[in-house]
Amino acid sequence: MKSELAELDQKRAMPDDEAPDSVPVPHALVPHLNETAILLDIDGTLLELMPTPREVWVPPGLSDTLNRLAQLTSGALAMVSGRSLNDIDLIFAPDVFRAVAGHGAEMRLSVGNEADDVHAPPMDKELKRRLAAIAKLSPGILLEDKGYSLALHYRLAPHAEKAIYEAVSLIRADLPTAPIEVLPGKFVCEIKHSGFTKATGVRELMKHEPFRGRRPIFIGDDVTDETVFAIMPDMNGLSFSVGRRAMGVNGHFDAPSDVRAFLARLLDPR
């Protein structure tokens, strides 16, 4: 086990152009899932990206894989997403998973609880109104209000990217003391309260049972996942990117389907 994990750790230090072309399934972890925590981004990682956030769907077999992994890890499986807890539950219904949601703004430490901790207050209504008006710049810009953040999706209007970010910059310049942060993503611009990230949420999550003391495996795909990639070495963890060779990870997957296959193979005792 140690030699296989040491090899994966060495790959984290590779320059981007020398990153591995494929991710070996860490068979050494399979007999030791009771010592592992599995942390998963959703959009673009576990599930394919769709034209709109509401169009994502859970492929057949994934629910069984996730539930079996949750059982074998004694519950140490969590979603780490920019989506709200409510959105996560709608996607995976009727299944309910532990989660770091809203880029760390919400957290569910135990299944059955709506939310154990909310780190961020609701966004100022006037600020939200001004940001929401940006959606009128072009047909196809979709507005998503998460309460503590606001996302402008432009997958259906990619030509509007520059105008969206310029409009957000003007609002930030007009309100320099507003405690907000802009998160660029894959065809989405999200504005949230500063001071919390997926990484702060994961650090908090790993302090609690059943995650405490386990070695985390984190899989993510987007810029917002890079904060978690960065802290995995502090936790003796492993990290994998999806669709691109992110810096500082142990390896990468080409597509969400490869991530799902990887998770299913972790259940194989061979």
Short structural summary:
The protein has eight helices and twelve strands. It has 270 residues and is of the alpha/beta class.
Output mean pLDDT: 86
CATH secondary-structure class of the largest domain:
Alpha Beta
Radius of gyration: 19 Å
Count all strands and give the number.
12
Which structural class best describes the helix and strand composition? alpha/beta
Number of domains: 2
Low-confidence stretches: 1-21
Give the full name of the CATH homologous superfamily of the largest domain.
Answer: HAD superfamily/HAD-like
SSE ordering? HEHEHEEEHEEHEEHEHEEH
Estimate the strand proportion: 15-25%
CATH topology of the largest domain: Rossmann fold
Strand order of the largest sheet: 5-4-3-2-1-10-11-12
Assembly type:
single chain
Distance between the termini: 14 Å
Largest sheet: 8 strands, mixed
What does this 3D model show about the protein?
This protein has an 8-stranded mixed β-sheet with strand order 5-4-3-2-1-10-11-12. It has a 4-stranded antiparallel β-sheet with strand order 6-7-9-8, covered by helices on one side. The protein has helices at 2-12, 62-72, 85-92, 125-132, 161-174, 198-205, 226-231, 256-266; strands at 36-40, 77-80, 98-101, 106-108, 117-118, 142-145, 149-153, 180-185, 188-193, 215-220, 238-242, 251-253. Helices cover 29% and strands 20% of the residues. The longest helix is centred in the middle third of the chain and has 14 residues, at 161-174. The chain is globular, with a radius of gyration of 19 Å. Helix 2 (62-72) crosses helix 8. It folds into 2 domains: 2-119 and 196-266, HAD superfamily/HAD-like (Rossmann fold), CATH 3.40.50; 125-193, 2-Layer Sandwich (Alpha-Beta Plaits). The chain has 270 residues and is α/β, with parallel strands linked by helices.
